[in-house]
Amino acid sequence: MKKKIKKTLSLIRRTILYYVIWPHYFRKYSKQPIDEKKVVFAYADTFKKIPDNLRCMKKYLESKGYNCVAIEHAENDPAARHGFFGRLLGLKVCEDFFREYCTAKALFLNEFYFPAYACKPREGQRVVQLWHACGAFKKWGYSTADKSWGASRKELQRFPIHNTYTDVCVSSPKVSFAYAEAFQCPESIVKPLGVPRTDVFFDPNFVAASRQILLKRFPRIGSRKIILYAPTFRGNSILESYNENKLDFIKMKEALGDEYVLVLKLHPRTAKAFRIPSHVKEIVGDFVFNATRSVEIDTALCAADIVISDYSSLVFEYSLLERPMLFFAYDLKEYDDARSFYFKYEDFVPGPIVTDTKQIIRAIQNVETACDLDKVRRFKADYMSACDGHSLERIAHDVLGV
Q: Do 257 and 225 belong together in one domain?
């Protein structure tokens, strides 16, 4: 009964917000004229700071004389976290978002942002989804409706999402269909203009400096090569996400420790709960280094000689470097059933699929024959063709005529 009441109250709250409060704010602040030099960047409080796509776009537009306003998630307010009515009243901070958005020439998003879907943009406004991932790997949005990962279709009909975009920027024409499906939008607004945060992968100075940044943080790496382990999370939702460590660190050190180190870059949602048992840490302390909180992902990727991932989209940007990748898919069937992919996993990934530590060790010891770099290059050409170091310029010109 208690669970049912909580669910009912949550539904009432969402209905009031989506159909009453947010439209009221939109009407209120849309009475003012649009400022042609004002741009808003909005992001969820799952990010501890403004996300990379938004951050570099903001910096670029500020250099062009735009007034750029960053708005953190409207629910990120202490008053919004105490009981139903406290949350409802606390969400008045959403007014900050609408006050800025309603008079802006453009709104840039990097993820799901619920308040932005309550009202269609004004004539002359652009709502641009940069998305936080490159390519198209595991499904999301409307593509996962009624799956264990996604929302129910009934809920999506009641509270439509991703429904206000005027522009969706992607990394290649080959993935446009996936974004149109995930956002239930016309494919005509899905534009292969590139992904802003990939521009740094074409900066030789940035790429060259990345290893030194990692060495400064973990000097014990020394002259050894870097294996980056960067898995995605498990679980049926972001809020219920968790990490599983299926690697045998001790065996990896015994076999690879003279030539390699293992650097961990875990999903931020699962990093806090991750622990290496003390008895294992004593043995592998000079081999395993956790860079999750201390090193940015683009730096870690550029410093890595080999990447081990699973279903994470970071393999798209790593392909820009044309380096070896392994795919640790020990739970492929279960993950596919819960989430599914836009392409058949076994045919899609540009590297060997491994399911245990023994196979990983063997693949790394024979990396030159196990990993086909021509396959990586074809993958890059297929799914990252719009990323060439000039994504920022192209998107800014398309949206704002800069």
A: yes
